[in-house]
Amino acid sequence: MTALEEAERAGIDLSLIDVSLAYSYEKRAEQHQAALELALELERVGRKLRGAAQPTDRTAV
Predict the structure, then answer these.
(1) Element (H, E) at 46
(2) CB–CB of 8/14 below 8 Å?
(3) Could you give the maximum distance between any two Cα atoms of the chain, in Å?
(4) CB–CB of 52/46 below 8 Å?
(5) Is residue 12 helix, strand or coil?
(6) Tens digit of pLDDT for each residue in 18-52?
(7) Assessment of whether the complete model's pTM goes beyond 0.85
(8) 13-51 burial by CB neighbour count: b if 16+ within 10 A, else e?
(9) Measuring CA to CA, which residue among 22, 26, 35, 38 is closest to residue 14?
């Protein structure tokens, strides 16, 4: 079994890889940067929400 066959059998959608590789390097870099910025923003929001969820009176815990 080839690596491609194994990937397909594992459920990996190889068409997404084909589409991505059809983009220019610049387009892929832009997509990566946008995904990174989204991930970092989600992390910031999560930290803020977790911080807000902390009790104000730590002796009440």
Answers:
(1) helix 25-52
(2) yes
(3) 61
(4) no
(5) coil
(6) 999 999 999 999 999 999 999 999 999 999 999 97
(7) no
(8) eeeeeeeeeeeeeeeeeeeeeeeeeeeeeeeeeeeeeee
(9) 22
